[in-house]
Design a protein that fits this description.
The complex is a heterodimer of chains A (about 180) and B (about 375). Chain A has about 180 residues and is α+β, with helices and mostly antiparallel strands. In chain A, about 25% of the residues lie in helices and about 10% in strands. Chain A has five helices and five strands; from the N terminus they run ααβαββαββα. Chain A has a three-stranded antiparallel sheet with strand order 2-3-5. Chain A has a two-stranded antiparallel ribbon with strand order 1-4. The radius of gyration of chain A is 26 Å and the shape is elongated. Chain B contains eleven helices and seven strands. In chain B, β5 (about 280) and β6 form a beta hairpin. Chain B is globular and about 70 Å long. Classes of the chains: A alpha+beta (about 180), B mainly alpha (about 375). The interface of A and B includes residues 12 and 16 of A.
Chain lengths: ~180, ~375
């Protein structure tokens, strides 16, 4: 170590100059903002619940079931997603579809989000493009395990996120969610 | 008689309120200043009826949280000392400020009120003694917790305090030699003089080395980063590991109070205390001869304002240091104290003595 470095004071002073410069530069920007000026902000903080940074369009968020034009699910209950799911969180009960041209439809389509690992395999496995993970919804925590189970009706009601990644449908609330 | 008592009470109450409020506010200062230094916003969520006021309610929220937490008492702890220790810490932090003058004198009618909680002719020694007694609370806390980590923290606190105190005492000696008094009020008054006719004769001008040594040792005495040996969050949790609730809060409060005391002592010894440059008892007298007469009340208010401003600046600098430097390792702190600060303080005493001898009298 050089003598100048062993003499700790000089390094301390250079450090203080650096942090002090940050303080006064940021303070000036904060004051300019408080006085109504626009320009660089004094902090990089994003105030989360009120302010959000846009999500990437590739984000894997809450699932949704794609609807046909008549509003029924596009899903044909082929069980591909249920089979490929590594977390085994999808539960499908197949049923006859009233339209003879379509073979089957799900009478139940439950996803247990408490088990889901958000791998996106279900989306890739689906031959009908009936399940997608593009709602942009990430806040679906619950105080109970039952509150994490999303049913067919809830998943069908969801809309894809807007082009800026902002969710366009409200967060669905399962019936037995306590809060 | 009653009026005299009232005046004394008022002086003590002023100092008490000043230091308590400042100490409480320091939690807010610490959060906000560190946040702004690190390009963040800092705590701003506590609100009363939707008003946030830049997070100023956070100290209040802290107090409510700490008062409502469980007050834990370890099974094998010494009941009395365990509960007594935080009070000792806070008491000496508060008492230390008493002999630091916050103004010269206020003349009301024919009364001359010294602006100081207690007028002591050994004020320096008093502050010094109270600062060192504060460590007893920490040691008591460490020992009475019946916890090895707490005991280690208490021992480290004692070791650090001795290290810091020797350097503080030795660096103060230079100032005492220069101004020739142990009375803080006298020292501050002597700093009102001018060097070469225009430089205020503050301690930082006449004793620059002592200033750096005293500030370093003073920061060590506050037990905060970079000298947080007794706490050492990354290695031992420290002397308050068994404390919870408001008792823990009191230890944190004691650290802040010590910060205020060290800032006040630094101000009094090195930054001219309540002195405003070129402001005298009767008004402003600039070195080029212009004079502006001011009434005594205005002068006293200016002095108190100057003292408060200097303390705030010192606290800012100490917070800046706390949020800039990484913590010393235990052996590094000991090495710095015994092989760095202490010999340099002795050197400072020798240099001061030589200069005084060469000058023949105090300049």
């Amino acid at each position: 170590m050089k003598v100048a470095q062993r003499f700790y004071l000089r390094e301390v002073l250079s450090g203080l100059v650096l942090t002090g410069h940050h303080f006064f530069a940021n303070m000036g920007k904060h004051i300019a903002h408080a006085l109504g000026r626009t320009g660089a902000r004094g902090a990089v903080t994003i105030q989360y619940p009120e302010e959000r940074r846009p999500y990437s369009p590739r984000l894997r968020s809450l699932h949704r079931l794609v609807r046909r034009e008549d509003g029924s699910p596009r899903c044909v209950a082929c069980m591909m997603c249920e089979t490929v799911c590594p977390a085994r969180c999808i539960y499908i009960v197949a049923d006859e579809h009233p339209n003879p041209e379509i073979e089957k439809m799900p009478s139940r389509f439950d996803i247990d989000l408490g088990k889901c690992v958000f791998c996106g395999f279900c989306v890739e496995a689906c031959p009908e493009d009936a399940i997608r993970m593009d709602t942009g919804i990430l806040e679906f925590s619950s105080y109970s395990r039952g509150g994490m189970i999303y049913t067919k009706e809830m998943l069908l009601a969801l809309e894809p996120a807007g082009p800026d990644g902002v969710p366009r449908s409200p967060v669905p609330i399962p019936a037995d969610r306590t809060v | 008689m009653i009026l005299d008592f009232g005046i004394v009470f008022g002086r003590v109450a002023f100092v008490m309120m000043f230091i308590l409020n400042l100490g409480g506010l320091l939690t807010w200062v610490e959060r906000k200043q560190s946040a702004i230094m690190q390009d963040r916003i800092g705590a701003n969520r506590a609100s009363i009826l939707g008003f946030r006021v830049m997070g100023l309610f956070h100290p209040l929220a802290d107090a409510i949280k700490m008062l409502t937490k469980e007050d834990f008492l370890p099974a094998r702890a010494d009941r009395f000392l365990f509960q007594f220790a935080p009070f000792v810490s806070v008491f000496f932090g508060l008492a230390a400020f008493a002999s630091i003058p916050f103004g010269d004198t206020l003349r009301v009618g024919d009364r001359v009120i010294p602006l100081q909680a207690i007028t002591l002719n050994v004020g320096v020694l008093y502050v010094f003694a109270m600062l060192s007694l504060g460590v007893y609370g920490v040691m008591m806390a460490g020992w009475s917790s019946a916890n090895n980590y707490a005991l280690l923290g208490g021992q480290r606190a004692a070791a650090l305090m001795i290290t810091a105190e020797i350097a503080i005492g030795a660096s103060i000696m230079g100032v005492v030699m220069w101004y020739g008094s142990l009375d803080l009020q006298d020292i501050v008054r002597a700093q009102g003089g001018l060097l070469f006719g225009w430089i205020p004769k503050w301690g930082i001008v006449t004793q620059p080395l002592a200033f750096i040594l005293f500030l370093t040792a003073g920061i060590a005495a506050t037990k905060r980063i970079p000298f947080d040996m007794p706490e050492g969050e990354s290695e031992i949790i420290g002397y308050f590991v068994e404390y919870s609730g408001m008792k823990f809060g009191m230890f944190a409060m004691a650290d802040f109070l010590e910060t205020v005391v060290v800032a006040g002592l630094t101000t009094s010894l090195f930054l001219g205390g309540w002195q405003v440059p070129y402001l005298y008892d009767t008004g402003v007298r600039f070195p080029w001869g212009t004079t502006v007469a001011l009434p005594n009340v205005v002068v006293a208010l200016l002095q108190v304002g100057s003292f408060s401003f200097k303390i705030v600046v010192m606290i800012f600098i100490m917070m800046l240091i706390r949020w800039t430097l990484p913590r010393f390792r235990y052996d590094q702190a000991m090495r710095l104290g015994w092989l760095g600060l202490f010999p340099l303080s002795i050197l400072n005493i020798v240099l001061t003595g030589a200069v005084l001898l060469a000058w023949g009298s105090r300049p």
